[in-house]
Predict the structure.
Amino acid sequence: MDRDSENWLGKSWDLVADIGGTNMRLAQVCNGQLIAQTHYETGSDLSIDAIFGDFIDQIGCSPTHVEMAAAGVITEQGVQLTNSGRFFNQIDIQRATSAKSVRILNDFEAAAWSLVTLNAADLHLLQGPALLKDKPLPKGNRLIIGAGTGLGVGALVWSGARPCVVKGEGGHCRLAPDQAEEVALFDALIGLWPDIQMGDGLAIEAEALISGTGLPLVLEAFEKVHGQRPSKARSGDIFAKAKADPSSLAGRAVKLFCKSLGALAGDLALVFSAYGGVFLSGGVLQANPWIFDDSTFLQSFNAGGRLSPIRQNYPIYLTHNTNFGLIGAINAMHYAPVQPDGAL
């Protein structure tokens, strides 16, 4: 426990958590400020109860409220993490933490809440007017898209001066071949991962092309189409190979990744009229900012036919802050607090 946490020992605090496909981040929050933070591997042998119990033991007392973001579809029964075998519900978390109240958010519902309190120092501009220290970011609806283990999408809109979040599963929108040479590739990818097929054609889930989970299979599909033995390379190795040799199959896989991300982001920016900005986040993108040095992403984002000029007017930023899920959970508590009866 650090000194800040010791100063809050015995005082009221809240617990925020961001549970993704690879990592779990837990943090102590006092008066809206992150005090103590730690992380665990989502795939560890520890149960959810044990993970929360271990963190609370470090703090020394139970939280008042738990606000957690989880990478899965939230139902009345709980949440099944999309890219993990873990399942839990509010009752599990309340029992493990002894908190008075618990709320589970979709991970990119929380990510969208993080857009309320943006810090320009955490942003790298890809398209739009230059960022200035004394000039606020553009007003308007904001869209966040994050590629990590999976693919998440969230949006922040305004009701007068009040921020509101639109949650959904935009990472599972459909993408399909748009060039003849992609037909065999998509067919091979469906053969490797049948669950991603949407309908009986070649349309697939966007997450299959734009995620750390999907990229190794995209490369394997390229290798199959080109008659090569599967390399079974991991996502990080594929990005490294692509950076070193853009003409390699790994380079072509990453180029398709960027093209698909640009197309999806541009389409969703139109859906939400994201004049307040499109924000790119997630572990894969934050670890590989060099992919935006190439024009592939922006060309695909702005390729909107008759509406290309509109797409070109949306500001686009790459975010550097890895705590966007935790920050979003804090903002959700502030702007959409849980009422005593559990309602918003």
